[in-house]
Specification:
about 325 residues; mainly beta; 8-stranded mixed sheet; 7-stranded antiparallel sheet; about 15% helix; flat
Length: about 325
């Protein structure tokens, strides 16, 4: 029997993923006793944010302005959505053998800087980072590398980790002389951060780019016959704001025995509230990949601007919720 967790762990896009990783808005931060903490930036405003999201790449360009009469040197943080997996799911990232697992790049006024990365492992809110580090287990809980390291641990150590819930022990499929396979059960929390100066009375341009890890499922939990108000579809309505057009489009695409492939992208917008005042101009572009794909996310004033692109523009924007994007496609459409 095939070990699906190993097979999909090295893939660019997961087939059975239940977790989504994309990115976040920049936020002002400090390092306290508990690690990265987010603070308020007095007098530094995010004048504009131009965000473009697809399953292949995320790019974001900011313009900040320091309205104060003094230069400010602060720590800027870019938190990633948490990654949680178990032995029944497979989650992949673009560069699973690298701490910079999304290929994250930052430029300030056109000059690239090297961000630092804080990673922590937690289980039900309890920090288990040191427990894993003592065993030389990588904190990145996806990909084949972490499985190989866990495989090498002795049975007593594995059982002790399993008793605490840090790992799950499942049936082992590849070797007759080993009865269990260890799978990560912890949550990975990751924050990229760097220090930069905002000169008084001047604009600063900050840009990011990276490859998102896209959560995906071969199939979808949407009931296309159930209606928007059905209890079955409630989670999709609440999270992605699916509407009747999505239900109709999905039903049409499933005609003839087809099934839909579900992809999910998350982006943390609410950390943008840590800057001074509102975001002056917010511009979002979402590319759904194929003209035949369906896409849905929560937002007012979304406009279709091309065969695969949709845009949203807001002035004096105050993000009330994070961004959750759902893409539905027939396998083979991309």
């Amino acid at each position: 029997m095939i070990d699906f967790a190993r097979l999909f762990g090295a893939c660019a896009v997961s087939i059975l993923a239940g977790v989504t990783v994309a990115g976040a808005n920049d936020s002002v931060a400090e390092i306290g006793a508990g690690g990265i903490q987010y603070v308020y930036a007095d007098g530094i405003q995010m004048m504009s944010e131009d965000l473009a999201i697809s399953t292949e790449e995320v790019t974001v360009d900011y313009v900040f302005h320091n309205w104060g009469d003094k230069d400010q040197t602060v720590m800027v943080a870019f938190p990633m959505p948490d990654i949680t997996v178990n032995y029944e799911e497979a989650v992949s990232v673009p560069y699973w053998d690298d701490n910079n697992f999304l290929g994250f790049h930052v430029t300030i006024d056109g000059t690239e800087v090297e961000p630092s990365l804080q990673q922590r492992a937690s289980l039900l809110g309890v920090d288990v980072t040191r427990d894993l580090q003592k065993l030389n287990v990588p904190l990145l809980n996806v990909g084949t590398h972490v499985l190989d390291v866990l495989d090498a641990l002795d049975s007593a150590t594995l059982q002790a980790l399993a008793d605490r819930g840090i790992i799950d022990l499942g049936e082992f499929y590849e070797s007759a002389d080993k009865q269990v396979q260890a799978f990560p059960n912890w949550t990975l929390e990751s924050v990229y951060y760097w220090t930069m100066t905002f000169p008084a009375g001047k604009d600063v341009h900050v840009s990011h780019r990276y490859t998102p890890a896209v959560g995906a499922t071969a199939g979808t939990g949407i009931d296309f016959d159930g209606g928007i108000n059905s209890e079955w579809n409630k989670s999709y309505v609440d999270k992605y704001c699916i509407d009747d057009s999505i239900l109709r489009g999905g039903k049409n695409r499933m005609a003839g025995g087809n099934y839909l492939f579900e992809q999910r992208i998350s982006y943390i917008l609410t950390t943008g509230r840590n800057w001074y005042q509102t975001i002056g101009t917010f511009h979002l572009t979402v590319d759904k990949g194929s003209p035949d794909n369906l896409v849905s996310w929560c937002g007012e004033g979304i406009v279709k601007t091309g065969p695969t692109t949709f845009e949203l523009k807001k002035e004096d924007y105050y993000p009330e919720r994070d961004l959750e994007i759902l893409i539905l496609s027939v396998p083979g459409n991309g």
